[in-house]
Write a structure and sequence with these properties.
With about 110 residues, this protein is mainly α. It is built from 3 helices and no strands. It has one domain. Helix 1 runs antiparallel to helix 3.
Length: about 110
């Protein structure tokens, strides 16, 4: 028996589920690249408020796209459990960038061969 995503006794991730996890990882990396690029854009970007405004709009769209990602196993939003946060009692949705498992079913982002 192979180790599943949750550990022994759970089914291993299918190829389709691994593709879904790779999409979530790609979206997460895009957001982190945009977050990391914010200071260089502030310091070395073009003059004017329009550049920073456009950058923050792009960043907000990327975070929103990331938070809309669906779990390949249960079909619910992977990173966000409620409208405003991860789980009841955690009211800050951007914390979803640190989530390592689906907040609904527990399907781990670190499945083998992601």
């Amino acid at each position: 028996m192979s180790l599943g995503v949750f550990g022994p006794g759970y089914p291993p991730a299918t190829d389709e589920e691994r593709r879904g996890l790779r999409r979530i990882v790609w979206r997460r990396r895009l957001v982190w690249v945009l977050v990391g690029g914010t200071i260089p854009v502030f310091l070395f970007g073009p003059e004017g408020r329009w550049a920073m405004g456009a950058w923050f709009i792009l960043l907000a769209l990327a975070v929103g796209w990331h938070n809309l990602g669906r779990c390949p196993r249960c079909g619910e939003r992977f990173n966000v459990g409620t409208l405003w946060g991860l789980r009841p009692g955690i009211p800050f949705a951007p914390l979803s960038l640190a989530t390592q498992e689906c907040v609904h079913c527990g399907f781990r982002l670190t499945a083998p061969q992601v």
